[in-house]
Amino acid sequence: MPLIVGVLVGVILLLLLAFAVSYAAGWSPRAPAETDLAAIGQERKAQFIIAAVLGIGIVTLLYGLGEPERQAKAFERQRETAVERGAHAFAQYCYTCHGYTGTGAIVPGQGVLGANLSIRRATGDRDEDRKTYDLLTKTIARGRPNTPMPAWGLRDGGSLNDEEISELATFIMFGNWNEVQALVAPGAPTPEMPEGPSGTGDVLARSLFVSKGCVACHTIQEIPTARGNIGPNLSTLGREAPNMKPGMSAQDYIRESILTPGAFLVPGFQNLMPSFQGQFTPEQLDALVDYLSKLGT
Description:
Elements: H1 3-24, H2 37-65, H3 67-93, H4 95-98, H5 126-142, H6 162-174, H7 180-183, H8 201-211, H9 237-240, H10 250-259, H11 282-293
């Protein structure tokens, strides 16, 4: 409800209340000659009651006008607290598989890359942020079957309660990744990070596929760390892509899937992949699309 509408409604309600109280008290303006002293006293009491009620109502109305701002500040303080606690939890439980900055590290003893969490940031869109928050909390609580991601929720055999899981998700969406490393306990192991993009052609494409965290969700047989099963197996994508969307070439389909993944969903898979719009240079994107379009051919 707009603020001016709330003010008008409040004023109208106060006037109606004043009328109701004065009517119930039997007060009406009359000349002093028409009544006795007792009646005058009763009317003055009624006037005092009306004034008191109106005063209380006005104070309440003015207080209520500032309530949205107070609620917003309280919510912001709660989120800051959640982010701070979530950062400590991430530094304790998560950094070895996801790296200090959330971009994904080599999972100890598994040789596969942890998911890139840096792409799960809040966007400011309420609906999209709610979906991201739900995805994060469910994944943290329940884990990912057939992946290194364990279930952390108490109900699923883990060690974190709902509040701690919520704080972790809030940190991933709103926190500062640069704070994590300083929070890690002295002497704790250093995460093994994948090499950054390098080379040209297929070499560059494979390094991009690893460094951007794609291996956490997809399988490509020729890339040892690419054993994810959250998204489709891409090992034969070059053979399958030309038939995925009638009238669209394999390269156009792959490019669309990278930049606008929700435009077409492979049957049996959910719309979980974020857009990688703006995360590649034109040369990098061309190399990746070219490489993927040749897989299995």
